[in-house]
Amino acid sequence: MSVYRKVLEYEDQLIEWRREFHRFPELSFEEFHTSKRIVEILQTMNHIQIEKGLGTPTSVIATITTGEGPVVALRADMDALPIQEQTHTPYESQNPGVMHACGHDAHTAILLGAAKVISVLAQSKAWEGTIKLIFQPAEEAQDEHGLSGSPYLLQAGVYDQVEAAFALHMCPWKKTGQLLINDGFSMASVDEFEATIYATGGHGGYPEKSTDPIWMLSLVLPGLYGIISRRIAAAEKGVISVGEIQAGNATNIIPAKASIRGTIRSYTPTIRDQLERELHQVFQMVHSLGGEYRLNVSRGEPALYNDPYLNQIVRHSVRKIQTHIDLFEDNFGMGGEDFGYVSQKLPATMFFLGCALEEDYSRDLHTPVFDIDESSLVLGVTILVESALARLKQATI
Prior knowledge:
There is one protein chain. The protein has helices at 3-8, 11-23, 32-42, 104-121, 149-155, 213-231, 269-283, 285-288, 308-321, 340-345, 376-392, and strands at 49-52, 60-65, 71-77, 130-136, 164-175, 178-181, 184-187, 189-198, 202-203, 238-247, 253-254, 257-266, 292-299, 304-306, 326-329, 348-356. The protein is an alpha/beta fold. The protein folds into 2 domains: 3-187 and 303-392, Aminopeptidase (3-Layer(aba) Sandwich), CATH 3.40.630.10; 189-299, Alpha-Beta Plaits (2-Layer Sandwich). The strands form 4 sheets. Strands 1-2-4-3-5-16-6-15 form an 8-stranded mixed β-sheet, with helices on both faces. The chain has a 4-stranded antiparallel β-sheet with strand order 10-12-8-13, covered by helices on one side. The chain is elongated, with a radius of gyration of 24 Å. 46% of the residues are buried.
């Protein structure tokens, strides 16, 4: 049976599922309606064991087993973002201030499509082993413990027996029929920092009688921005970005403190550690300026590492489906992805699936106008299914 032709039979259903999830988006750790609907759809399929609430209340794990053999996982995230949608489509978000602006609605529909096809193929016992379909909550945000969905599922043992994990991400800067794939480190680790500079403060008319935290911060900032350009090798990938500065509440008062928050992103553990050390060194200049400071760095998801062998399976699967699909070999930029927690523990890979609409303007990720070419859904399902089956069969690539 041709997997691609089988998936084509479900194209209308894939689009319907994607639009349904798009209309009713839910934020991280709040995906109760989404997970309930996923379970309802999975219950219409054969040969599937469904588990709910592993690691987090809204997780859904579907397992298809045909006998002894390897265990392969396919993962999709399903949470949305706090963005007010402005697409004006018939399937626009019905939840004010919440939007699927990163394609997780498509990821969910694609994984449901994969479950449908795999459940049908399981009847023929064309392979032996197990496929886990992991519908993961909370990729976009962390809770009060600093954790997103992936580490909770790992702690709950969801991936304990898994030998390989595959995932995809929608890619609005590539057209349908194009894939972005990369061996090794492919997305950044994302850490957050927050610092407060303490001084005496004082009267705006007599700055010489006080110490000024805003002035101190103004000298810290060039050093902070200079870390990337002067302390990190040009061939390495690293970014430090300041997203928030707060100080004072009156024009004639020099405040007693100034606060700053931002992110630190890198590709390798070595550079990740170096950036944190350099940040601490830069803030030490506050002492020579007469102030004190407190700096805290909270580590988030690790860098995404794509297993080269699994990528070869993906490439082989792509060639098997359609010879005219364009493969682009490049990293995915400095964004973060909590699938990095999985790739840190076991062989895993993620590819970016082209989905750009044929328009004159961009519908980038995390924007209020994000949308996709829904014909890309069939290709996403087919590649995931073919890759999972190839890994189960230990295909020679």
